[in-house]
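Input sequence (367 aa), recorded before submission:
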Amino acid sequence: MLDLSLGFGLCICALLAALTLSRRPLAETDVNLAGWLVSYALFFVGWAGAARLPGGPGYALAALASSAIMLTPVFLWFYVRAAAGDRVRFRWPHFIPALINLALMIALALFARAENIGGAIAVTATRALAPLAFAPVALLSAVSVYPILAYKRAAPREADLKNALSDETALAFNWVRVWSATTIALNLALIVVSLASNAGGAPLEAITTIGATIIAAQILYVAYKGLHSGAIAKTDAPVSIAPPGASADGEPVRLEAFEAHMAGVKPFLKPDLTIGALADQLGWPREEVTRAVRVNDENFFDCINRYRVEEARRLIADPANADITLLSLAYDAGFGSKSTFNAAFRRRFGMSPSKFRAQALRANPLK
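Predicted structure, token format:
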């Protein structure tokens, strides 16, 4: 079972890395995603070899695996930085923990009588040198800072997108936050396993099989999202916003004009409506549109989708549309995806669109 899990992980990493690098144009996020996948591929190669090969070759592959896994949080951080429009000027210092780990593994083999036992490193050195066995665990703990930083960077970037976009692109950083959170959890699990193996008595075969399966699932999720999300939109720099209900010079927000435009022109029917496009339609500065949006304590994404939900409710409740699918009506209301529509509808009305339709048609059947 372990061989199957490790082999599957290696194959999907290699395939997905090749698919990612074949994209044109090749974005910086694609390169970083491919680096993450290649790091995991090296990890699987090392893990599989260490679990099966005795002696020096197995130990060398175990050293490769433990060093490669330290690269994955780094490439996650690079990905988030690139997606957020931030540049990483000096990349090589971020690879130092993996290089130090490799050097430590060599030192353990030479001076601490470390050996590979089924994929786990056992140290039989004197008490003075035994603490060296915990150095790789300390390094893994250190690189766990990267997914924490990635998670923290993704949160404000998601807020920026929701203040500028109205389609599912505004949610592009949701999955990046999931990626960061699962990486933190996996690193913690690897730290626990490393400590347990150093202490002895851990059921390594079962633990490694479960771990390989979980990692493979994370890889599939991340690669799918990374390959299908496209380029994460870059928006203008956030504007400074006055409190809701007042403009920068204290004048009331032109809320009636805003609502009249939304009701008459219905710009929300365009799935990719942005705050810049809406500002151009109104002939207002973007800051004034933002203040009008914030009157109800909403961001642009939630405000526009509130109008779309109301439009969808009207269409769904109309008996003349009883034979039209809910998804078609959602698209007619300006939604760009089923998931965004369902989530917005449930949040607004506390029920699914299908349940709402059933109730509406019972109350007002087509005559």
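Checked by second reader. The two ends are 62 Å apart (CA to CA).
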